[in-house]
Amino acid sequence: MKFTMQRSALALALLGASAGAIKVDFTSDDSIKAGASTIAYGLVKYYNGNETGQVPGTLPQPYYWWETGAVFTTLIDYWAQTGDNTYNALTSQGLLFQVGQGNDFLPANETLSEANDDQGVWALAALAAAENGLAGSQPSWQELAKNVFNEFVARWDPKCGGGLRWQIAAVNAGYNYKNSAANGVFFDLAARLFQQTNNNTYSQWATKVFEWEQKAGLISDSYQVFDGVMVESCSKVDKMQTSMSTALFLDGSAVMYNATSSSDWKTRVDGLVKDVQATFVKDGVLYESACEGEALCTVDQQSFKSFLIRSLKATTQQAPYTAATIQPLLQSTAQAAAHSCSGSVDKKEFAGQPGTACGFSWVGNAAFDGKAGVGEQMNALSALTALLSKAPRSQIFPSNSSNSTSSAGPTQPSKTSGSGTPSVSPKSPGNKVAANLLTALAVFGGVAYGLC
Ligand SMILES: *[C@@H]1O[C@H](CO)[C@@H](O)[C@H](O)[C@H]1NC(C)=O
Ligand SMILES: *[C@@H]1O[C@H](CO)[C@@H](O)[C@H](O)[C@H]1NC(C)=O
Ligand SMILES: *[C@@H]1O[C@H](CO)[C@@H](O)[C@H](O)[C@H]1NC(C)=O
Ligand SMILES: *[C@@H]1O[C@H](CO)[C@@H](O)[C@H](O)[C@H]1NC(C)=O
Ligand SMILES: *[C@@H]1O[C@H](CO)[C@@H](O)[C@H](O)[C@H]1NC(C)=O
Ligand SMILES: *[C@@H]1O[C@H](CO)[C@@H](O)[C@H](O)[C@H]1NC(C)=O
């Protein structure tokens, strides 16, 4: 390890590439914050939704709508851990601009293609805003998240014994697929709403979703979280694993353990942590095992490590006994991530401080690997902020008492069955090859267009 680090440091010096690279003294919180600030600056440069004439809450191509929700969660976490509120205004503005008529993150522009996991990622961003007391939502952030929860309950589907389908609209390719990302956002939402409110409806649903995932074969006996299952047979499980789905089930399980002290949830936390180590760690750092080795990760997949890092960090707080296992992994991951933030790329690809673009792969303490983008910046930002320790979010969320009493419910039943809407992409994958291609290509909404 040491040898590798010296060698790459030497290589960088020889190339003169370290000019702008992020240098972090990991013994100093101030230095970690400074590094995080540089990475956050580079991340937000991709976002122009707060500029005149642009649409708040959206990123330019090639980023799908869901990803801005993930960016906002990352920025809220950055603010909560560092106290730097530079991006709070644009975060609030972007989240609120996309709530839609029903206050449920189904804005009209997205309803044709929006999937349950897309909607859930935005709901989780609203929940992070609630937990950390981000200013400015009417109805409350928590109310927005509850509205989405209630819609998920209504969409629970009897095929294969339960579960959410991937797609909301029946006409979309992927409606016949039940995936762990959609059920994972539902699960995490339920667990965290339970922790915030003590309302048993939420804990019952958290338990129900987790147990369904197990019965459906989507969570194995060794707590591997598989991608999804086609509803025609209910037995053909796509065994791809993504760090995002695992992250969602780990996060919610740790919250449920914290809220209940139950040994069932402890068993699940322990199993999922073990699986993270077995599946998503290489050379002591996190990696996206399904695609990183071959450098074949999609734009979506390039952002998933950010979810896993935040989930692991939250687990050390919700289930403190796990810290001894997880903390060293977060530490080595953050160091490798910072090391990768030395990229000098075209201004069109990266507009942050020159020479500080973060790479995707951190294995072997690699220098910048040539991949720059929103996901790469998000992953590295989460990696650095995970080393800072403010109070866990359940304890700092300030506001279940507040302004949430007004008529915040959906103003009308959301149009989710796609009945009257024109079919954008009626293609159904229809066979196994196409189904595998579908899930291999992308996990989130918009995949239908990608296949056209
Ligand atoms: C958008 O946000 C960025 C980052 O905070 C800021 O520098 C910029 O001035 C904002 N633009 C507008 C038009 O407010
Ligand atoms: C929907 O799209 C139109 C056209 O691009 C845009 O003007 C509007 O702001 C968008 N609304 C939302 C909520 O994104
Ligand atoms: C939030 O709700 C929980 C559970 O009902 C309660 O224990 C806690 O005191 C509430 N917090 C605030 C700030 O009202
Ligand atoms: C608990 O949550 C459910 C689902 O949001 C809601 O319908 C119910 O009214 C809540 N119960 C209480 C006591 O607040
Ligand atoms: C729940 O989280 C708090 C805050 O980190 C911690 O003090 C407490 O010990 C946790 N509860 C359990 C059962 O671990
Ligand atoms: C309710 O919202 C108003 C306006 O946003 C704010 O001034 C007030 O402090 C809020 N009250 C609570 C209890 O959060």
From TrEMBL:
Signal peptide residues on this chain, from the entry's feature table: 1-19
GO (cellular component) term, any one: endomembrane system
Origin superkingdom: Eukaryota
EC class name: hydrolase
Keyword Transmembrane: no
Record's compositionally biased regions (Polar residues): 408-428
Catalysed conversion reaction: Random hydrolysis of (1->6)-alpha-D-mannosidic linkages in unbranched (1->6)-mannans
Protein EC: 3.2.1.101
Region of interest: Disordered: 397-429
GO molecular function: mannan endo-1,6-alpha-mannosidase activity
Keyword Glycoprotein among record annotations: yes
GO terms of biological process kind: carbohydrate catabolic process; fungal-type cell wall biogenesis
InterPro entries documented for this protein: 6-hairpin_glycosidase_sf, Glyco_hydro_76, Mannan-1_6-alpha_mannosidase
Pfam families per UniProt: Glyco_hydro_76
Keywords carried by this UniProt record: Glycoprotein, Glycosidase, Hydrolase, Membrane, Signal
Principal location: membrane
Compartments it resides in: Endomembrane system
UniProt record similarity statement: Belongs to the glycosyl hydrolase 76 family.
Protein name (database record): Mannan endo-1,6-alpha-mannosidase
Organism this protein belongs to: Trichoderma asperellum (strain ATCC 204424 / CBS 433.97 / NBRC 101777)
